Amino acid sequence: MFMVITMRVITILLVLQLSILLGRAFPMPGVSKGKKGRPPTQSSISTAARQRNPGSQTPVPSFPPSHWVNPYRNCNMEKTKAIDNWIMDAFNMTFEAEHMTRDHPAFNRFFFGHDFPSFEMMIRSLNSRRGLGTDQKYIVRCADNGQKQCPPNTWLAVDIPGHAICICSDMFHHETAKITLASKPFDGSEDGWCRPPPHDLDLYMLSARALLSRMIRIRLQTAEDYREGDLRIWTSARNLKSDYTKWKQSDPRRRGHPPPPPLSNPESYVASIVEFFLTRKCGKAFNPDKIIWN
């Protein structure tokens, strides 16, 4: 009886050892080891999955606003909640833009083909916080209109060298302040983001777009967006590519002051990112040629 039990124990041990050896020789498919034999992290697995099927899943921000922004200054609880929503909406759109391709209409409408590596670099810089410095974040403060930082009829003021954005009280009181990505469904209903055209851009994440524009201004170290005459900055961004091309092709003796290249215009990035986001989320229901340019 003792010999039988002993043999069974030995057999079990041999089977376990064989299983371990086979596991090392034939690892489970889709799972690889990290550096120095360590198991992969969750982020490395999800990155590998996106590389295998780039369009299968959109990356979404897994960080709170504090990943990009220092604690808000002079902002009460209600304003803090609103800013949180605007910032996360902005980064939801920039994370979606990681899927942008060189031949996508949302890119080609605003940029030249050779601009794509720089565009990609901007998106990665925004999403990873690189570009502000190793330990630096944006500084966001609140102020009332009429104070030094916020002249009348101003939504946002930006201090580019200080990486600071001042959000003025008028921005919180605007009728579109409560329009966030979570406030509407992504469907074709009357209240949905994907409702039939025409699309009034004043109703599309206006506050998040404004904040995103200032973040890009800080990265580009430029104080203003390109504005063509009395046209709005979004319309000007849409025209900038052709305006810049016409200027380069014109007689050098009559060129006059050049418009900026699209890569130097913050609103060109914002317009491309937003258009791409809505095209991805709504498909053919969002028609960029049916936008109302008020």
TrEMBL record:
Region (Disordered): 31-65, 245-266
Protein name in UniProt: Uncharacterized protein
Domain of life: Eukaryota
Biased segments, Polar residues type: 40-60
Signal sequence segment: 1-25
Alphabetic keyword roster: Signal
